[in-house]
Design a protein that fits this description.
548 residues; alpha+beta; Cytochrome p450; 3-stranded antiparallel sheet; binds protoporphyrin IX containing FE; Cyt_P450_E_grp-IV; iron ion binding; monooxygenase activity
Length: 548
């Protein structure tokens, strides 16, 4: 079909548009009325422009879904208003496996089908993750222009020689966080930190504590991770008030990144970022990174070698801190809530994970010790691991983003009925993890329910996108699994987490209307009462690492 005939057949009231103009001239000789009708005709035509763009598309492109209410802005406002659930809303009407949304400046290709996500991720030579997040990165930490030039240099190895800050940094992070001795060392320190913090948290004679569960997880994870990754002279150890500053920035970062006089419009998070950035600058300037983990020693040296100033090398760490904490903290919060708000599941997990506990025969100076083996949790506690994965399935809504750098066609797997799709350079791709994670076609009729045992038998790995996929799959996923399983299992054995009335804690409600830069947040953060379990008060608990 030619473009002309596609436009003719498009869902546009051509007769109306064509008739209004001559009719207005003919029927309304008075000047004002004629002008009014011509403007009216022009505006109504504007509302059909997305239909025209749809008709002009190459038939092999993912179909454009016109916004009839407000062209060019409607989908942007929809994403802003409905947050993570917007793609699901569009999908519930259109049911396309992949579709295009026209936004003000660009085209967004939304991928709904897991079968299409896989070949799109494989085509990593024609798409770029980093190019897509350049502007976000700049605004997130307030990089200056010379630093952005260093970051952009040979970003996707377009020069072919394999060197450049982003390429080297990606490879280094990947190797340090992949299973092996470096990761084991990092995990072992982290688990020691958790053990020490939890033993001290409620110890005799303190019978119980009332806490905001999310705030408590934030405090514990930030303190432990900062020590493990950034060493004893980390900014949070030297300036403890920065823990709340970091999270204040996290809560308001969208407003700061909007960059409309943020020191006035988003003052609190903007000041919080300034405080954290200043401390990270000091961390680099005073060479405190030399007593940090090998990962940070490598990373800061690499950034400085490529030409970052100490100030900018400090700011670069704010990005990694978000990588380390941004998802792990809310995931742990939900994992704890999902278990402690379900007494039957809690009892089963306590029973299952008992096999990972050994008791010391010789008491240490601080008391008699119990050891919890993370290796055993991972290898022999399928219910715990499945509950962790199901927790992530229910909250990991963040889309994986890519920029199409070269026009190409993706060939879909032979076992599907999908045609090959043409993806044009300049389009943005969003693989809608949230929609994929709740699709009945993938997970069955109970897709929207929380089923702790789902992953004991499920093999739907292609559709499981909590850690993204392809060449930029989260490099921290092994570390995250060890720390989160260990932390939660330790809480399960050490504590009772209850509502303020001493009953079962209420299950928090997921906030579907907000679009966070991480896994989903709750509408309200519950206040809970935590106490040592009866009969377990006198023990000193230690987490033993798992060897990856
Ligand atoms: C439950 C916890 C976590 C979740 C759900 C998570 C999820 C993700 C996701 C979805 C991405 C983007 C991948 C894509 O777009 O395809 C990502 C990237 C990344 N994550 Fe994680 N992550 C977690 C924990 C961690 C931890 C603990 C670390 C560090 C120790 C980490 C370091 C990173 C880094 C550095 C990247 C950027 C990858 C790159 O530049 O290629 N993450 N993560």
């Amino acid at each position: 079909m030619t473009s002309i005939s596609r436009i003719r057949k498009a869902n546009i009231p051509w007769f109306f548009h064509i008739a209004v103009i001559p009719l207005s001239v003919y029927l309304f000789p008075r000047h004002e009325l004629r002008v009014f009708l011509l403007i009216y005709a022009f505006i109504t035509f504007l509302f059909d422009t997305e239909e025209v763009l749809k008709a002009l598309q190459d038939p092999n492109e993912p179909p454009l879904i016109p916004h009839h209410g407000l062209p060019f802005l409607g989908h942007v406002l929809g994403m802003f208003w409905y947050g993570a659930s917007y793609f699901a809303r569009v999908n519930s009407i259109t049911q396309h496996p992949i579709f295009t949304l026209q936004t003000w400046t660009a085209r967004t290709i939304v991928v709904i089908s897991p079968q299409l996500a896989a070949p799109i991720q494989r085509a990593s030579k024609n798409t770029s993750f980093y190019r897509m997040i350049l502007e976000v990165t700049k605004r997130l930490v307030d990089f200056d222009d010379p630093s952005m030039k260093i970051i952009t240099y040979n970003l996707d190895n377009e020069l072919g020689h394999g060197s450049g800050l982003m390429i080297e940094s990606h490879a280094m992070l990947d190797s340090m966080l992949s299973p092996g001795p470096d990761l084991n060392k990092l995990s072992a320190t982290q688990l020691d930190q958790f053990s020490a913090l939890l033993n001290d948290f409620i110890s005799p004679p303190s019978p119980s504590k009332t806490v905001n569960l999310m705030t408590w997880v934030k405090q514990t994870f930030t303190t432990a991770n900062a020590f493990t990754v950034y060493g004893p002279l980390n900014p949070f150890a030297l300036h403890p008030s920065l823990v709340s500053s970091f999270w204040r920035y996290e809560a308001g970062m969208a407003a700061v990144m909007a960059d409309i006089f943020p020191y006035l419009t988003a003052r609190k998070p903007w000041l919080a970022r300034r405080a954290v950035n200043a401390a990270l600058h000091e961390f680099v300037e005073k060479e405190h990174y030399k007593s940090a983990s090998q990962l940070i020693q490598n990373r800061v040296s690499m950034n400085l070698r490529h030409g970052f100033t100490a100030k900018m090398a400090g700011r670069a760490e704010l990005i990694l801190l978000f990588g380390i904490l941004g998802n792990a903290v809310p995931t742990t919060f939900w994992f704890l809530s999902n278990i402690f708000a379900r007494p039957e599941l809690l009892a089963r997990i306590r029973e299952e994970t008992r096999q990972a506990i050994t008791t010391s025969t010789s008491p240490s100076p601080s008391g008699t010790e119990k050891f919890l083996s993370v290796a055993t949790l991972k290898s022999s506690c399928p219910l715990l691991v499945s509950t962790y994965r199901e927790t992530l399935r229910s909250i990991a809504n963040l889309a994986s983003v890519r920029l199409v750098t070269k026009t190409h066609t993706i060939n879909t797997p032979p076992n599907t009925s999908y045609p090959p799709y043409l993806l044009k350079a300049g389009s943005m791709i969003q693989i809608a993890s949230g929609v994929i994670h709740s699709a009945p076609s993938v997970w069955g009729p109970d897709a929207t329910s929380f089923m702790p045992t789902r992953f004991i038998s499920s093999s739907t790995t292609a559709a499981y996108r909590a850690f993204g996929g392809g060449s930029v799959i989260c490099p921290g996923r092994h570390f995250a699994q060890s720390e989160i399983l260990g932390f939660v299992a330790l809480c399960v054995h050490m504590f009772e987490i209850e509502g303020l009335d001493r009953g079962v804690m209420e299950l928090p409600v997921r906030d579907d209307e907000r679009l966070p830069f991480s896994v989903m947040k709750p509408v309200r953060e519950p206040i809970v009462r935590m106490r040592r379990r009866s009969g377990e008060e006198g023990w000193v608990w230690r987490l033993k690492p798992g060897v990856d």
